[in-house]
Amino acid sequence: MDFPKNVIEQLAAAKRVAVLTGAGISAESGVATFRGKDGIWNKLKPEELASMDAFLKNPSMVLEWYDYRRKLIIDVKPNNAHTTLAEMEARYPYFAISTQNIDGLHRKAGSQNVFELHGNILRNRCNECGAIIDDVEFAKGSPLPRCTCNGIVRPDVVWFGEMLPVEILETSYEKAAQADVYLSVGTSAVVYPAAQLPMAAKQNGAFVIEINLEPTPLSPYVDASFFGKAGDVLPQLWRQVKERLDA
Ligand code: BV8
Ligand code: ZN
Fold it and tell me: To 10 degrees, what angle do helices 5-13 and 230-245 make?
């Protein structure tokens, strides 16, 4: 794919680049997305599983679902889209990834400046005191794991109706507001407040580029959309920018 000259120039001239990623960037690593043709939510209602109500109503069902997803995620590997972002971070003096994903694949790919807006499925926390408690199993039928403060232990992820980690959200807004170029990669842009970030970048003068398999509610507002697989589009785009930078 040949990218428009202005897109290449924007990325070549940028000093500060920020990125929002969603489940689509991990799809080629074999991690199921939530919406779209084979998304998880087609079979299950998100509110029925990824919410505090669901957890309080049927904690073992929710914990077993996370345990099942955790087992799927443990062995997955970053794909070319993750590794391209890690390579870009090394080239820009100021580069940040705010991800909605809970699979830890950006860090596995070598990215350092990663803000996990919705937590991380490989971490657990106490529902009462917030302590991080890692070595618990949510095995089927076993008693609910408890913290020393007796609070129930749950995956350290943000459920629907729960606040996102405040510092991480604030920092993500700052990175968006200060970005010269903002990339939205592999997200359906329907979950808030994360979906607000590319718009915040736009309102603060950033050049916004969307890379997604299909159009999203964000598409009419961005400066450039490229519809295709992130694992194809992102490496090709970065290759053309590097050629321009090394010219
Ligand atoms: C909050 C948990 C308030 C972890 C998740 C009505 C209107 C607007 C907002 C709301 C509303 N009602 C309620 C709300 C708020 C709600 C929300 O936004 N709901 C939406 C759905 C309407 N938000 C919340 O509840 C948030 N909290 O607002 O708190 C508050 C305030 C004060 C005090 C207390 C509370 C919490 C949101 C976080 C919810 N947790 N997950 C887990 O189990 O994973 S959300 C879930 O969706 C995931 O985290 C996921 O990351 C996120 C977003 O989805 P995407 O990442 O975009 O994935 P999706 O599958 O949707 O899209 C993938 C895209 O990739 C597709 O477009 C596809 O085409 C594309 N693709 C596929 N393959 C590829 C590809 N692209 C490129 N390459 C490929 N190969
Ligand atoms: Zn506790």
Answer: 70
Smallest CA separation from ligand 1 atom 14, residue: 192
* pTM of the entire predicted model: 0.95
The DSSP annotation for 139-203 comes to -TTSPPPB-TTSPBEEEEEPPBTSPPPHHHHHHHHHHHHH-SEEEEES--S-STTGGGHHHHHHH
Q: Which alpha helices (H) appear in the chain, and where do they start and end?
A: 5-13, 46-49, 52-57, 59-74, 80-91, 105-108, 166-178, 197-203, 230-245
State the first-to-last Cα distance of the chain, in angstroms, to the nearest integer: 19
Over residues 108-120, mean pLDDT: 98
User: Which tokens belong to 217?
Assistant: 């509610």
Strands across the sheet containing 94-99: 114-116, 94-99, 16-21, 181-185, 207-212, 224-227
* Helix or strand (DSSP H, E) at 123: strand 119-126
User: Which residues, judged by CB distance below 6 Å to any ligand atom, belong to the binding site of ligand 1?
Assistant: 22-24, 27-28, 33-36, 39, 50, 100-102, 118, 157-163, 186-188, 190-192, 212-214, 216, 229-230
Task: Locate the ligand 1 atom nearest the alpha carbon of residue 81 and give its number.
Answer: 78
Provide the 10 A C-beta neighbour count for residue 47.
14
Minimum mean pLDDT among 37-41, 114-118, 193-197: which range?
Answer: 37-41
Residue among 169, 185, 165 at smallest CA distance from 177: 169
